[in-house]
Design brief:
The structure holds 2 protein chains of 2 kinds. Chain A is mainly β. Chain A has no helices and 11 strands. In chain B, strands 2, 4, 5, 6, 9, 10 and 11 form a 7-stranded mixed β-sheet that branches. Chain B has a 4-stranded antiparallel β-sheet with strand order 1-3-8-7, with no helix packed on it. Classes of the chains: A mainly beta, B mainly beta. At the A-B interface, β4, β5, β9 and β10 of A face β4, β5, β9 and β10 of B.
């Protein structure tokens, strides 16, 4: 059974800092890995999808890397802004269309 | 193109009462998921449909939970009777066949009192 761990569980930083959010998973036989953002009281918004054959994927100030063999993914946020405050969730895809979530990292960016 | 639509957004019920949630996936998405998210935790899978067939319901508490996806489009998740521990956000997601990027609805926040 896939188990996903996200570190840190919570993070509070001043505006402008570059951030690294970590995700580790136990079953490396994944097809893809998806990063989501969740605002309080809202659903999940897809940020990035990394194919298993890719090493990284970029969207604006976000960059996600994937090291499938070691069971790790990292989400890098450049020049953080207060609007980035949210919970970030990592979810690897396994065979059978199985999407398993970590507990998330709650990010607060202070002005 | 409309996203995944869920209703209601919020529901407050007394314990032992029944409740139902509805989900309309993105048009053309044949895989539909129901997840439950407890406060401060990541979502956990309850059931997954491929078209109208439930292919993974191992985490669905079948004594009180039921789900259906008639005609392979809309889906309904039901709880009867509800318990205090069922208070959570219930999320619906869908994907297109062969494309493992999932899209989620806004969720239904259930409070059982």
């Amino acid at each position: 059974k896939q188990e996903v761990t996200q570190i840190p569980a919570a993070l509070s930083v001043p505006e402008g800092e570059n951030l690294v959010l970590n995700c580790s998973f136990t079953d490396s036989a994944i097809y893809n890995l998806q990063w989501f953002r969740q605002d309080p009281g809202k659903g999940l918004t897809s940020l990035l999808l990394i194919q298993s054959s890719q090493r990284e994927q970029t969207s604006g100030r976000l960059n996600a890397s994937l090291d499938k063999s070691s069971g790790r993914s990292t989400l890098y946020i450049a020049a953080s802004q207060p609007g980035d405050s949210a919970t970030y969730l990592c979810a690897p895809w396994n065979a059978g269309n199985m999407l398993t979530f970590g507990g998330g990292t709650r990010l607060m960016v202070k002005p | 193109e409309a996203g995944v639509v869920q209703s209601p957004r919020y529901k407050i019920i007394e314990k032992k009462q029944p409740v139902a949630f509805w989900c309309n996936p993105i048009s053309g998405h044949n895989t539909l998921y129901w997840y439950r998210q407890n406060l401060g935790q990541g979502p956990e899978l309850l059931i997954r449909y491929e078209n109208e067939e439930a292919v993974d319901d191992s985490q669905l508490p079948k004594d009180r939970f039921s789900a259906e996806r008639l005609k392979g489009v809309d889906s309904t998740l039901k709880i009867q009777p509800a318990e205090l521990g069922d208070s959570a956000v219930y999320l619906c997601a869908s994907t297109r066949q062969g494309n493992t990027e999932a899209f989620f609805g806004q969720g239904t926040r259930l409070t059982v009192v």
